[in-house]
Amino acid sequence: MRLTLHVWRQSGPSTPGKLETYPIDGVDADMSFLEMFDMLNEQLTLEGKEPVAFAHDCREGICGSCNMMISGQAHGPWKGATTCQLHMRAFKDGDEIWVEPWRAKAFPMVKDLVVDRSAFDRIIQAGGYISVNTGGARDANEILIGKEVVDESMDAAACIGCGACVAACPNASASLFTGAKITHLGLLPQGQPERDRRALAMVEQMDLEGFGHCTLTGECQEACPKEISIDVIKRMNRDYAVAAARYVEPKETAGAG
Amino acid sequence: MAYLARFWDSTIGKKSAEAMHDYATLLRTSMPVLWGARIALIGAVVLHAVAALQLTQRSNAARPQAYAKKAPQVTTFAAKTIRYGGVLLLAFIVFHILHMTLGVVAAPGFVHLDPYNNVRQGLANPLVAGFYLLAMAALGLHLYHGTWAVFRTLGVARPSPTPLKRRLAVALAAIVVLGFAAIPLGALAGAFTEQPSPVTAEGH
Predict the structure, then answer these.
(1) Within an 8 Å CB–CB cutoff, is residue B162 touching chain A?
(2) What CATH number belongs to A3-100?
(3) In Å, how far is B177's CA from the nearest CA of chain A?
(4) ipTM of the complex in this document
């Protein structure tokens, strides 16, 4: 099939970018969207032009690198799929496709379609972990957890941190991402000791990074390649409210006891 | 049917000027309570508006570069327009106080403590009644999105396989809007007949 691509080109963070139009011919319906981009880059290289920079790694929908806003939809038109899982049969001959990077102040531009998502890493560092004493490996199933709880936690844990939620949100909010992490850990017994501190620290880091606020439009849930429900945002809000009410910063332990 | 017609006549026709006057005086049985409620409501409106303004600024700052192409999937009309509707409602609240409480704007023949005739004359102008209806439409959209969202914002909604369904919000928005809109609609339809003012009857 023959397509017309409008691709965002920007050589660096401080230079202004613009949409460039590239016609591309001979696209196979069985190609993935990224394979189509590989084809485009070969074409550009042969024409002596700079290929389009785009992030990609696993190409099987688990790494969360291949982030493209495709004709106004994060990861394109397919539900529950990343850009690499999107196939060209989603389009038809003669289609015009707009491809832009994630747009958020907290995701600074690197080049073309690549943005820096380390803001997510800093949110995780703020509290997206549990502390376990080292030593011999614990027995599996040592702590019994109900199936419903495990399922809900696992659904939230499916988050790959791609940032589609931020990209799709009209406020560029990271609430679905942060909510998913807080839900994933906060539901499990292992996550209880740090639950209050986690909710406070992660939400505050999220705000610090310059993400917008949640207005519950539901766009994130629709864009999420792992179809994480906005219920995680509700859980984050409750955990944050409860923690804000009851959490007391532990006093410094002075001197040797 | 005859019962309903009689009931209708009795409230709107004969009794309403008096009933609304009684209600207005009832509100004034304790001025400290009335002023307490007024201050709490004004405070809530101010906090709500300031928070909305600050969040809007943060939201705008969070995406300095807009998308050339954006295809929202599930955003409702209510969610898209809630900020404009909010500004409209703020203007309406100010107007409504000037119009019906203080009687200084678009209120011909305003008489303190005669709400029936104030409503009748105040809403006789179709432009004014139209503005009331417009504001109620904005209120409905605000409630439609807000009622659903508030339970999620506070984190008290139960997990749902279809979190975007909002039956309670639709019902509440419909009841409130239809109830309030009935007054300007009634005024436009001429349901408010002229009544002697209970204030002058009492010799105030």
Answers:
(1) no
(2) 3.10.20.30
(3) 22
(4) 0.89
